[in-house]
Amino acid sequence: MPDVMLVNKPATTLTANGDGMPALVELQAATLKYGQGTLALSETDMRIGDGEFVAVVGPSGCGKSSLLKLVSGLHLPRTGNVRVQGQDVKGPIGICGMAFQNSNLLPWRTTLENVLLPLEIVEPYASTFRRNKLDYEARAKKLLKAVGLEGFDEKYPWELSGGMQQRTSLCRALIHNPRMLLLDEPFGALDAFTREDLWGVLQTLYLDQKPTVILVTHDLREAVYLADTIYVFSPRPGRIVSRTDVPFERPRSLPMTYQPDFVEMVQHLRDSITHS
Amino acid sequence: MFKTFLSAFTSPKAAPWLVTAGFFLVWELGCLLFHVDRFILPRPSEIAVQIVKQHEAIALNSFQTFYTTMLGFAVAVAVGLFLGLLVGASPKIYKGLYPLMVGLNSVPKVAIVPILVIWFGIGTVPAILTAFVISFFPIMVNVATGLATIEPELNDVLRALGASKWQILRKIGLPRSLPYFFASLKVAISLAFVGSVVAETVASDRGIGYLMMAASARFDVPLVFAGLVVIALMGVIMYELFAYIERRMTFWATRSQNPTI
Ligand SMILES: Nc1ncnc2c1ncn2[C@@H]1O[C@H](COP(=O)(O)OP(=O)(O)OP(=O)(O)O)[C@@H](O)[C@H]1O
Ligand SMILES: [Mg+2]
Q1: Nearest CA-CA partner of B204 in B215, B214, B218
Q2: Could you give phi then psi for residue B210, rounded to 5 degrees?
Q3: What is the structure's pLDDT at A12?
Q4: What is the pLDDT of residues B226-242, one digit of tens each?
Q5: Which of A93, A100, A158 faces B153 most closely, judged by CB atoms?
Q6: C or N terminus of chain A, fewer CB within 10 Å?
Q7: In this predicted complex, what is the ipTM?
Q8: A1-95+180-190+210-276, what's its fold?
Q9: Rounded Cα–Cα distance for residues A187 and A202 (Å)
């Protein structure tokens, strides 16, 4: 089966952001500076198509997290433009789900209540939250089941393992069907087995909902396994040094990651980082 | 047999009772052994006798103290909570208010009692106000700390969803500062007793503080100590009450790391 999926098609035919299509996210010469000093991101151009899965890799401190802050509207660019859905970003855009290296769950809420949190805030769910609570709970439970957490909804986050907390955090990021999913090293703190397990989970959820995803990661195998497009950033101040299309068909599987062309792509990315 | 006796002694439930009983026992025996004059340090049994004998006066005055303390404490909770939320939620207000608050808190509270007497005369009001002034600061500081130390990433998760400041405060800020708030109540209630009793000793004709002053003027030392014991008792009871509420309300903050047996 991997043989079929590994057919290496010409990259251009498979890019999700086919140049004619309207981009969901567009960065034009965007720079981000903290205070007067640190230039975190210099003159970055990027076009991310609707439903595209983008991975961002690069050395520590190069501005990957800053990029997510720009796209979500949590920070505004110092110069240049950030546009989402054709609109200039002027503040938090409210269509994102986010997950970080730490699960950041609320210890006073059960797993289920944690997952429901976005629905208490995002419209159109928030205004009908009380009325539709049962529906929403059913939906949260379905999501928890999909990530392998069935039966844990009444547990508190501190009663879960790190990997389970991270799964919950993924559910929370996805519960409101966000157009865009921003993931900042979500599996960084996990062991290799759990991490690879969660790649599969994330892939399933992605194929199910088809959000636009930006995944920041240090793990090149993870990037190739999950993404349509991989951007490599230079050391600080961050700028894009390469953009790679990943041709492998979905769903991708773990055995696939040991196939020669997969390994070769990882190798290639590895080189472009060390030489940037 | 000896073993069970030992384990009863070391069990965490019995320990506070045993230690307290031991304290009074050592006191009693020490006084007997060294023939300490009851005008210097009365024995616990003499104090107990005095409490029984004077129970009417003690009850009346301790009710007065209890009620002024609770009033002052209630105002302190309201003001401390309000200022704490204000200061914790806004760095600007924090910066602005901070030096003033630290300055005010450094003033010995006893020193303001005479001023309160000038303003309000001898009576209940200075005691209430002293209890309030002395106990609201820890509440304010704790609530502000709880709010100000929210993990920035958690803030980002909500802000990215388009949450308003008020929503973030309600969903995260308030629940998160609850443990800080309840922890501060335990400290504040003890301080409130200190405040009201101190004010009563100088500026009142009622309350335990006044009772003790009057008793010492009559060289009724056992009654002075009886007053101390009653205050300590009220302090312990209120402290335990708030510790209990704290455990109930914020179990998630004091979660045990050990598996339940
Ligand atoms: N809040 C901040 N204030 C000032 N400087 C910051 C702030 N956040 C990040 N920086 C600086 O901006 C640069 C980019 O930071 P960023 O967090 O985006 O890096 P990163 O690529 O996510 O790194 P890592 O892989 O280690 O997470 C860093 O040099 C950092 O020092
Ligand atoms: Mg980062």
Answers
A1: B214
A2: -65, -45
A3: 38
A4: 999 999 999 999 999 99
A5: A100
A6: N
A7: 0.77
A8: Rossmann fold (3.40.50)
A9: 11
Q: Is the CB of residue A42 less than 8 Å from the CB of residue A272?
A: no
Structure tokens at A81: 């433009």
State whether the beta carbon of A65 lies less than 6 angstroms from ligand 1: yes
CATH 3.40.50.300 domain extents, chain A = 1-95+180-190+210-276
At A16, list the tokens. Answer: 């999700």
**Residue A180 and residue A50: Cα distance in Å, rounded?**
9
For position B102, what pLDDT does the model report? 84
pLDDT attached to residue B61: 93
Q: Closest Cα partner for B90 from B17, B166, B32, B153?
A: B166
CB A115 within 8 A of CB A106: no
Question: Taking the model in full, what pTM does it have?
Answer: 0.80
Establish if B247 touches chain A: CB-CB under 8 angstroms.
no
Sequence-ordered list of residues with C-beta below 8 angstroms from that of B74, at least 6 positions apart, any chain: none
* Nearest-neighbour CA in chain B from A158: distance (Å): 8
Residue partners of A238: CB distance under 8 A and separation at least 6: A40, A41, A42, A44, A58, A62, A63, A64, A66, A67
**Closest of A209, A206, A229, A182 to residue A64, by C-alpha:** A182
Higher pLDDT among residues B39 and A182, named by residue:
A182
Mutate to test the interface with B, among A102, A120, A121 (most CBs of B within 10 A): A121
How far is residue A72 from each of residues A22, A41, A263, B32, B177, measured CA to CA in Å?
A: 18, 15, 32, 77, 27
Question: What strands, in cross-sheet order, belong to the sheet with A23-33?
Answer: A39-49, A23-33, A79-84, A87-88
Q: What is the DSSP letter of B173?
A: I
- As given in the structure block, the two tokens for residue A142 are 């379905």
CB contact under 8 A, B153 and A108: no
* Cα B223–Cα B225–Cα B229 angle in degrees, nearest 5: 115
Residue holding tokens 């790190």? Answer: A162
Burial class (CB in 10 A: 0-12, 13-18, 19+), B146: buried
Structure tokens at B6: 């030992």
* Closest ligand, as measured to the CA of A74: 1
Closest CA to A170 of A182, A156, A152, A157: A182
CA distance B64 to B55: 14
Distance separating alpha carbons of residues B98 and B88, to the nearest angstrom: 11
- Buried (b) or exposed (e) across A150-163, using 16+ Cβ within 10 A? eebbeebbeebeeb
